[in-house]
Amino acid sequence: MREHDYKKVLGKNNPVQNAMALALLIEHGRTNILNDDYYNNINKNLEENPNSLMTPDFQKEVIKITRDMAKMSSNDLYDFIKNEVHVVRKNDKER
Question: Is pLDDT at 26 greater than 90 in this prediction?
């Protein structure tokens, strides 16, 4: 397996957006996110009902990252999650 392939896809993103995208992927599922109609509907709903806590551009980027995650291999997604868990645990120990 290629080491850290997920970093090619997700490494350039904001870590908060990556975490939100992962939660969105888990909530909606890979098959749904990869479905063009479903994906476009999420974006349309965002435009019609913006979240006051985040800018529309920030939210659109989260949705785009979610789709990028859905396109990743399962192993790359597992590696990303494993790395995120490691970072969180390391940060917790440092507190």
Answer: yes
